[in-house]
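Session log. Operator J.P. requested a structure for one protein chain; no other inputs attached. Running the standard single-chain path with C-alpha cell output.
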Amino acid sequence: SCAQGCRVSIQFKSINELREMLDSKAISSSELTQETLKLAEDLKELNCFVTMNGDASIEKAKKIDQTERVNSVLSGIPLAQKDLFCTEGLRTTCSSKILSNFIPPYTATAVMKLESAGSITIGKTNMDEFAMGSSNETSYFGNVHNPWKKGYVPGGSSGGSAAAVAAGIVPAATGTDTGGSIRQPAAHCGITGIKPTYGRVSRWGMIAFASSLDQAGPLARSAEDCAILLNEMSGHDSKDTTSLDIENTDLLHTINQSIKGLKIGIVKEFSLGDLDSEVQNRFEDSKKLYETLGAKFVEISLPNISASVPTYYSIAPAECSSNLSRFDGVRFGHRAENTGDLNDLYIKSRSEGFGDEVKRRILIGTYALSAGYYDAYYKKAQQVRRLIKNDFTLAFESVDLIMTPTSPGTAFAFGSKGAKNPIELYLEDLFTISSNLAGLPAISIPHGKVNSLPAGLQLIGNFLQEGQLLNAAHIFQQNSEFHLEKPSMEEF
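Structure written below.
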C-alpha cells in the first residue's frame, strides 16, 4: 500500500494528473479511493460531506483495477456528488431533516452518466437545505467551513462540493445552480464552476427546488476539468421533458483556441463603483489580461437587469412551494409522531421537517400563487423574466461574452449576513441570477484575492455556447495562476 507514500501526491491533483498516475500504475484506483476517503476523514472538520460511500466506492475501485480497458478519462477517478442528486442505495437528504432518512431507489441521470464513465462516488456533499440559500448556513447538518478561513461561509447552495474541491479532497464535484449556487461557492472557495445552458444536463433524479431555473453542472479547480465533467454529464434524456435534444459536442476540442478579437460586454447597469475598491481592482486587472490576449471590451446595456433579484424571488419560491408539497410525511421522509387526523400529520411533519428559510420561501411562494395574487406576482414576474431574456438576446448581437464579478464581495463570517434581514443574503446573487432567468450558460473562475480571500470573475455566454465560455476561461487560466492557489488549511 502507498498509505503515506502517495498521501501528499493526490491532494490538489487535476483529473489529467490523476489519470496519468493511474495509467502509469503509480497508484491503483483502490489506493486512490482509499486515500481520498482518508483525506475526507482527516478534513472532516470542514463538514463538507453529509454521507460517505466508503465500502461501495472501494468495491467499485477494485473492479476497475481488475479490468484492463479504460473507457474514459474519468475511469477510476473519485468524485463527490451534491446531496440533492438521488443515488440508489445511498442516503440523499437535501441537507434537510425531512429527508434525513431517505434512501432513493434510483440514481439521477447526471450522476449515472458520470458513474457509467467509470468515476467513483465517494460521498454526498453538504448544502443549503433544499438548495435554498447563498451561504450554506441553512443545512440541517450544520455549516460548511470555507477551506480558506475557518468560521467563514463557502457560499451556497453547493458549498460542500466547492469546499471539497477547494480543500483538494476530490478533483471535481457536482453542483446545481438555481440562482448562482455553483458559481458563487466557486468564487468564494477560489475554484472554477460552470452552470450550463438550461436543459443541457438532465434534471431527472435531481430533487427539484425551482424547476424552470435549476441546472446541474461541475465544480473543479480548472476550466479544463469542468469541461471533462460536463462532456460526460451532458446529453438528451427522454425522462426529462426539459432536456434539450441536441447533438453533444466535445468541449475539450474547442478549449485551446485563440481569443483574439473576442468581444466581451461590460454591463452599463451594474454600477461596479459601489463595490469594494479591491473587488474593482481585481476586475480591472482581469480586463487588462483579456486585452493583452486580444479580447475587446464593449459597453452593453441590459435595461431590465435591476429587476432580476425581485423577479427571481417571486418565481423561485412559487415553484418551490409547488415542488415541496410532496414532502408531507406520508410516502417518504420524516413523519411526525402522535398526530391526530391527516391534516395534523401534514402540519406537524412539515413544521418539524423543514428549516426556517425553506418555510419562508414556501410561504412566500404559496402566497404568490394564491387566487387573487397569481397575476400580480407570479405572472408579472414571468413577464419581466421575458424582458430580461430579450435584453440578453439583443446584447449578444454585438458581443460574444459578458463579464461581471461573480459576487459583490468575498466569503463572510458565519451569521454575519441575513440574520436580521434575509434580503441581505438574497443580494449576494445580484450578478448570477439573471443568467438562470434567461437560461444562459455562465462560468466563475478565480481571479485573485480581496483581503486574503478568493474573488471570482463571471463570464456569461450565449445559449449553448459552453465551448466558447470554457475556452475563454481556459485561456485566462493558461495565462494566470489564480486557479492553482491552494488554501493552507492549518486551522483544520
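Operator note: The chain is about 35% helix and 15% strand.
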